Amino acid sequence: MDGGARMTIIHYLNQFFAGLGGEEAAGHEPVKLDGPRGPGRAFAAAGAAPDVTLACGDDHFAEHEPEVLATLLAWLEELRPHVLICGPSFGSGRYGYACGVLAREAGRRGVAVVAAMTPDSPGVMAAEGAAYIVPTGSSVASMKAVLPSMARLAARLAEGETLGGPEEEGYLPRGLRVMVRAEHTGARRAIDQLLDKLAGDVRTEVGSTGDRVPPVPAVSDLHTVRLALVTEAGCVPQGNPDRLPTRHANVWLRYSIADADSLGAGAYESVHAGFDTTAGNDDPNRLVPLDAARALERDGAFGVLHDSFYTTSGVDTPVATAAKFGQEIAAELREAKVGAVILTGT
Amino acid sequence: MFVTALPTIAQMVGANRILRGVSITHPTGDPDLSTGVEAALRRRIVERALEMLVTEVGPTTIWELQP
Known about the structure:
The structure holds 2 protein chains of 2 kinds. Chain A is α/β, with parallel strands linked by helices. Chain A has 2 domains: 9-169, Rossmann fold (3-Layer(aba) Sandwich); 222-344, no CATH class. Chain A contains 10 helices and 12 strands. Chain A has helices spanning 58-63, 65-79, 93-108, 122-127, 143-158, 166-169, 186-198, 278-282, 290-298, 319-335, and strands at residues 9-14, 31-34, 52-56, 83-90, 112-117, 131-135, 226-231, 235-237, 253-256, 268-270, 304-311, 340-344. A 6-stranded mixed β-sheet of chain A has the order 2-3-1-4-5-6, sandwiched between helices. In chain A, strands 9-11-7-12 form a 4-stranded mixed β-sheet, covered by helices on one side. The longest helix of chain A is centred in the C-terminal third of the chain and has 17 residues, at 319-335. The radius of gyration of chain A is 25 Å and the shape is globular. The termini of chain A are far apart. Chain B is α/β, with parallel strands linked by helices. Chain B has one domain (2-63). Chain B is built from 2 helices and 3 strands. Chain B has helices at residues 7-12, 35-53, and strands at residues 2-4, 17-20, 61-63. Chain B is flat, with a radius of gyration of 12 Å. The A-B interface holds A 208-220, 222, 225, 233, 275-280, 282-283, 285-289, 291-293, 295-296, 301-302, 319, 340-346 and B 1-6, 10, 12-14, 16-17, 21, 23-31, 39, 42-43, 45-47, 49-50, 53-59, 61. Strand 12 of chain A pairs parallel with strand 1 of chain B, so a sheet runs across the interface.
């Protein structure tokens, strides 16, 4: 018996909770401090005492994100923690965002992460499912209740335990699918669920993944509308000059089609890793129907075809990221007075 | 509006105007058709998309290529 290697736990806090100062210290550079600070002191009771506390000013993080991440991740690399605890950040936007981004990056490097924030904190989206996030209220008033929950999850993760699902363990759904073995066949489970539903017990195992937007009123005058083509089929100029990722896209791109009547094979290709691109590469109009749209524009079927098309690839791209892309692209389209969009998906 | 061969998923995430595309790998085309027939198909798809854009719809409405 080796007496058990002590699990290494790191705690990330902002300037305020680390005791570096209030809002005036929001520009504080990242620092590495020994032992627990602020709320971290309460984690010891649940067996999750932080060995090291990393802290950074909320503004500094937001304004120097790449450099701050490089610094923090280098420290994580050096310290090799079993678990990283971020926050609790409650309703704070900047702090929540920092916690979420750090969680995501630490998660990508194999560190288990626990955080705590309000369910619609930007940090939840930023974390992209990398952290076990305990939901909190907006104010610090729930601190006493939240700390033990965070610490318990962290301690169990540090022990290498696999946690159960969100409802069972008290964290926000991470948007991940986990394989489980069911006792009964799908057919039996479906009938059971239907019978329960008929009896008034309505349950779902797959929740809705997005917010709901009411249908936009129909285009009132097709003959004056500016129409744009958008795609998630990963259609890009041949050679993928701007390096659209083939999966887990982190960007969307815009390409001019101002003088183009068609997306020629050899001029365009799809780099989407999620489907066989043979047919699409042989004729990219099969993914983005430019030739037909241009012909219909000429025939006066609608006003004008927008001079650029927008593209990204949808494989493994988190819903939150895709939603962000949609908002950004939509903002540009509105700015350009585009009134209608044909979006193609694979 | 959204042309996709997976309209159920589009419904799940709340797209409102959904037109069923030809296939996952070629939503707006069909390599098994001759060039002229495929061009007519693609024109029909875009026309149908335009029809949907000028039609009031309820939430998560799916249209087929042939009404």
